[in-house]
Amino acid sequence: MKYLLDTHVVLWLAENSPLLTDKAKTAILDEHAEKYVSIVSAWEVAIKLGTRKLHLDGGLPEFFRMIDENGFITLSVEKEYLRLISHLPDFHKDPFDRLLVATAITEGMTLITIDNNIHRYEAVCLW
Q1: What is the C-alpha separation between 42 and 30, in angstroms, rounded?
Q2: What share of the chain is helix, strand, coil (3-state, %, to 5)?
Q3: What is the layout of strands, in order, in the sheet containing 34-38?
Q4: Which tens digit of pLDDT belongs to each residue from 83-114?
Q5: Rounded to the nearest 5°, which phi and psi values hold at 61?
Q6: Which of 1, 48, 69, 125 could be bridged to 53 by S-S, CB 3.0 to 4.6 A?
Q7: Does the domain made of 2-126 have the CATH classification 3.40.50.720?
Q8: Residue 64 pLDDT grade (very low, low, confident, very high; cuts 50, 70, 90)
Q9: Which of 71, 66, 75 lies closest to 109 in space, CA to CA?
Q10: SS3 (DSSP) at 74
Q11: pTM tops 0.90, yes or no
């Protein structure tokens, strides 16, 4: 199984948040599953840190440390993801989330997210 983690999932996992469901935790802790984080999530974190909408001790280097420490694989943005975005239904306005949806669909991944707007897309989601 291949999982793509939404940005908030990585952050919540790092702080052991009770907002993470048991189902999400089980998937993330499955040592046989491949877990991915898009570089788009790092971009989102960088922007939110810069605008002070997010506080993260250690800043962006801490976000990358969390990814590496948990054995998550970082995905780059590919042309195929961008091509798909223009064809996605307009369920979600957030460009970061739209790119995560396109990535999950293109790569055949299950997207782990709480975001109900994302669950409206054809991407397979888990929460």
Answers
A1: 23
A2: 50, 15, 35
A3: 73-75, 34-38, 2-5, 110-112, 124-126
A4: 999 899 888 788 999 999 999 999 999 999 99
A5: -60, -35
A6: 48
A7: no
A8: very high
A9: 75
A10: strand
A11: yes
